[in-house]
Design brief:
Blueprint lengths: L17 H28 L2 H24 L3 H22 L6 H22 L13 H22 L6 E2 L2 H5 L1 H44 L5 H21 L2 H21 L3 E2 L1
Parallel strand pairs: 1-2
Helix pairs in contact: 1-2, 1-3, 1-7, 2-3, 3-4, 3-7, 4-7, 5-8, 5-9, 7-8, 7-9, 8-9
Length: about 270
């Protein structure tokens, strides 16, 4: 049986000239990556200069993305520009959102704000069509088994951030639904929005690498370089699954279950203690 040709593979990447495509790509990626890396340095050193640089890079990126969205006539450029602007806005939310003594409230506000922003974007923006969702019988097995393996690796990556064991109590368990919801939101931002909107500009493979790189950069906001490196490869895997299944519900469920199993894996591995 002849293998079907994916719609995104037929996208006309040649419609954007090379000399225009790469400067646009640099303007979309550099400010977000540099802003997140500067904040990572701030979390390590508590340097005010690093924090100022982080905010400056994020502002520059947001202005550049907004300008490209408003004034560029090519949809191949405007679509990923708007997606990166959305990610930059969520980054601002994480950096500037004032914390309270109520961890559950902080998590709920962040999940609601980021999830709401993604939903509004998907309602208002015209996204490239990459085909109807397609799932096979083996897809159900992947949903149940893949998150377990990913959770173990993810727990180990987080364990490299926390050199000593950390406590897991009832309050942490109450955060598990928030953690799962945040994993689903990440897939919405970086796969269903950023990857999908970048396909007409870069093709399937290029969009996959771009979204994974920016996803890893975004993860530096949490202050863990090992976890960011893990997130790059996780982004490649999740993006590949998304392009194959064409379903955000499917890949989002895999990510949400991975983050849920991560708490259990951390306890089993001795990274977290009850």
């Amino acid at each position: 049986m002849e293998r079907p040709v994916l719609i995104y593979q037929r996208a006309s990447v040649q419609s954007v000239q090379r000399e225009l495509r790469w400067p646009a790509l640099a303007m979309l990626t550099a400010p977000l990556a540099l802003g997140c890396f500067s904040l990572y340095l701030y979390r390590l050193s508590a340097s005010g200069t690093a924090l100022a640089l982080s905010l400056a890079f994020l502002v520059i990126g947001l202005l550049a993305g907004t300008t490209m969205l408003l004034f560029h006539r090519r949809e191949e450029i405007a679509s990923p520009a708007s997606a990166v602007a959305l990610v930059l806005s969520v980054s601002f939310l994480i950096v500037l959102l004032p914390g309270t003594s109520l961890v559950h409230l902080d998590a709920a506000v962040m999940v609601a704000a980021a999830g709401g922003a993604a939903l509004v974007y998907l309602k208002r923006a015209e996204m490239p069509f990459i085909g109807h969702p397609r799932l096979r019988e083996s897809s159900v097995m992947v949903v149940f088994l893949l998150p377990i393996g990913l959770a173990v690796v993810q727990a180990l990556a987080l364990g490299l951030r926390f050199w000593e064991s950390y406590h897991v109590g009832p309050s942490t368990m109450y955060l598990v639904p928030m953690i799962a919801a945040w994993g689903f939101i990440e897939e919405g931002l970086f796969r269903d929005i950023l990857l999908r909107s970048s396909v007409p500009l870069l093709g399937g493979s290029g969009a996959l690498v771009l979204s994974s790189f920016l996803y890893a950069s975004f993860m530096l906001l949490w202050g863990s370089l090992p976890f960011a490196i893990f997130s790059f490869f996780l982004g490649l895997l999740m993006g590949w699954i998304y392009l194959r299944s064409r379903s955000i519900m499917y890949v989002g469920t895999v990510h949400a279950l991975t983050d849920t199993w991560m708490v259990i894996a951390s306890i089993v591995l001795g990274i977290a203690i009850i």
